[in-house]
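User
Take a look at the entry that follows and flag anything odd:
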Amino acid sequence: MTTESQITADIEALRKSVPDTKDLYREVCTILFFRYGVTPTANKLYQYVRKGSMSAPAEALGKFWEDLREKSRVRIEHPDLPDELKTAAGEMVAALWTQSQAAAHEGLAAYRVEAQNAVLEAQTTKANSENDRAAALKELEQARHSAQMAFDRSLQLERDLASERASKDSLSTQLAAAGLQNASLEAALSEARRDFAAELEKLRQALQKSEERYDAKEKHALLEIDRERTSTVKLQKELVQLRQTHLEATDRLRNEITKIQNELANARQGTGVAEGMLREMRNLNQQQTEQLQSLQTLVAERDTRNVLLQRDLEMQRLLAKQPAKTVSIKPRRRRKS
């Protein structure tokens, strides 16, 4: 623990036992000056206590120094001594007191330094011991882990050994069974060899017969090949003749197609001219038809007018035959032509 933290801890303890602010400041001055050798100031007091106004630590500090001077002053009361001697003797005793107090403070400071060094050394030793202990615990844990792994490995090896023994026994049993099976297989192999020799002899005889049949078929096939070759030569000649005939027919057809194409072109040209004339005749016929319809319309209108005129004429004739009668006949309005 540092000096600052110790001072803070002592002041916190004083807060509980000294409720008055002024008394608390005076006690803090006493602790700082006599216990820790720190000269108290108003700012330091307020930083440590932080209670009351700023004037409270100043007043407490003034009171502390005044009490300290009063207590450090030595009065020699003797009726026969003059006042100057009394004062000088008192100052000398006060100086001795101050020197002894300074020496005590120096010794206390040296003791504090030694104590702090001892504490630091003890803390270092403790830290080293804790590190050694942690390392020892780690090594112990590793040793336990290694021992556990070795134990597990040993168990696994024992299991593997038991499994290998069981496998060995099983293999021995299988080997004995395989020996018996091998003997039976050898006997069966001998029997199979005899059967194979007999079958091989049969196959040789069958192969000889097959070769004889093959030779006969080969001769027959050669004869057939000769006949086919002769037929092929004949067919090739016929094919050449057919190709020549085909070429001649193709030339004739090509010439005929050319002639027909020319005739078709001429016919198409004539057809185009005829279509043009037909189109003109249709247009002319259309015009004549329209003119005929117009004339028919005019003729119909003229016939209608003639009928109306004849009717009027008949009426006039009737009126002329009957002069005595006064007949009021309303003239009929003629249609506009």
